[in-house]
Amino acid sequence: MSNESGKGIGFFERYLTFWVIICIIIGVAIGQFLPAIPETLSRFEYAQVSIPVAILIWLMIYPMMAQVDFSSIVNAGKKPKGLVITIIVNWLIKPFTMFFFAWLFLKVIFGGILPADLATEYIAGAVLLGAAPCTAMVFVWSYLTKGDAGYTLVQVAINNLILLVLYAPIVMLLLRVGNVSVPFDTVILSIVLYVLIPLIAGYLSRVLIIKKKGKEWFENVYLKTIGKFTIVGLLLTLIILFSFQGDVIMSNPLHIVLIAIPLTIQTFFIFAIAYFWAKYWRVNHSVAAPAAMIGTSNFFELAVAVAIGLFGLHSGAALATVVGILVEVPLMLFLVRIANNTRHWFPAHSATNQ
User: Fold this and answer.
1) pLDDT band at 136 (very low <50, low <70, confident <90, very high)
2) Which of 64, 88, 123 is nearest to 299 (CA)?
């Protein structure tokens, strides 16, 4: 990565893959040598939801939701092309191609390596990733590609609203196709816990704090302060996850690589669709790059949360979503570099119909 590409990304975000690997090691070690810790944590559950994990996931998601300014949605109609691309790619293409690639590799190509039941759980985890477009890290990718920050915010806000309506039905549809039986009310509960409640909390805190302290203080002090909780919550959640996944990883380390292959192919495939579509439509690069990045990257915090809620901390689905985190950051940094090196493919100035 060039210095320009590295500018603006935080220390933890820049080395997120490294921290994830460290968390894997720590989590596995705890599970193997201090099994009393995960055994004790597993007792704090309500309706099959781990209370410690739920708290950590709220720490992850709330700072992202607080960033969303829904008042900016009214300006989205001025540049519809970027929104059309990201909405169609995110909701009509991406979930289904994710399911296809996961099924093709984990059930067909690797069918002789993976147990059928475990492969099904891995596919379920991939589906949970594919149905959730990125919410937070996309602001980093947008910045690194010199994207239009305001437009990116509109894209994220609209995707959050669509997420509330379509995530559960799409997940339920694809999980049924994959022979996974999940109660609809369980999916809805996960969405309410991990999307709706943090979204409302983020909106209310944004409105109240800006009213009391001002927008500048909210953006430059409050958001930067609470933003640190996202990475901390994520890393602690991973340690807990891998403390339960230790036996699976130690006995099947190859599974991590096998899961990563379809996730990697999906990442490049979706980026190519959105990016070349934007090029064909002559969308300005400051809109095109973030539009492609939103669909390419995943709301992995939500995917991890729902996987835990639906299948449990011990599940293959939860492991698959964590592998998604492991591969996403280096792949996205590579795609940022591609986007920056192909800037000349796009119009130099924004048009009113983008």
Assistant:
1) low
2) 64
Q: Locate tokens 């990563």: which residue?
A: 260
Residue 235: both structure tokens together:
């890393």
Instruction: Compute the distance between CA of residue 20 and CA of residue 16 in angstroms, rounded to an integer.
Output: 6
Give the chain's largest Cα–Cα span. Answer: 61
Q: Sign of the C-alpha dihedral, residues 209, 214, 220, 221?
A: negative
Residue 10, pLDDT > 70, answer: no
- Predicted confidence (pLDDT) at residue 218 exceeds the cutoff of 60: yes
Closest listed residue to residue 64, CA positions, set 183, 228, 178: 228
* Token code pair at residue 19: 């921290």
Q: What is the pLDDT of residues 45-63, one digit of tens each?
A: 665 566 777 788 787 778 8
Please say whether the beta carbons of 145 and 290 come within 8 A. yes
Tell me the two tokens of residue 63: 């700072």
Please give the sequence-ordered ranges of beta strands (E in DSSP) within 135-226, or none if there are none.
none
Joined together, the tokens standing for residue 352 give 């009113």
pLDDT in tens, 253-295: 888 899 999 999 999 999 999 999 999 999 989 889 989 998 8
Query: Could you tell me where the beta strands, DSSP code E, fall in the chain?
Result: 45-46, 49-50
Please check whether residue 226 is in contact with residue 136, taking contact to mean a CB–CB distance below 8 angstroms. Answer: no
Q: pTM for this structure?
A: 0.74
User: DSSP string covering 62-91, please?
Assistant: HHHHHH--GGGGGGGGGSHHHHHHHHHIII
Based on DSSP, count helices (H) and strands (E) in the chain, helices before strands: 18, 2
Q: Give the separation between CA 281 and CA 129, rounded to whole angstroms.
A: 28
Q: What is the mean pLDDT of residues 305-318?
A: 80
How crowded is the C-beta side of 83, counted as CA atoms within 13 Å? 20
| Residue 108 contacts residue 181 (beta carbons within 8 Å) | no
Beta carbons of 340 and 5 less than 8 angstroms apart: yes
3-state DSSP: the chain helix, strand, coil percent, rounded to 5?
Answer: 80, 0, 15
Please state, in angstroms and rounded to a whole number, the distance separating the CA atoms of residues 85 and 295.
9
CA 240 – CA 236 distance, rounded (Å)? 6
Q: 23 phi and psi, to 5 degrees?
A: -65, -35
CA-to-CA separations, 121 to 159, 225, 253, 327, in angstroms, rounded? 26, 37, 16, 19
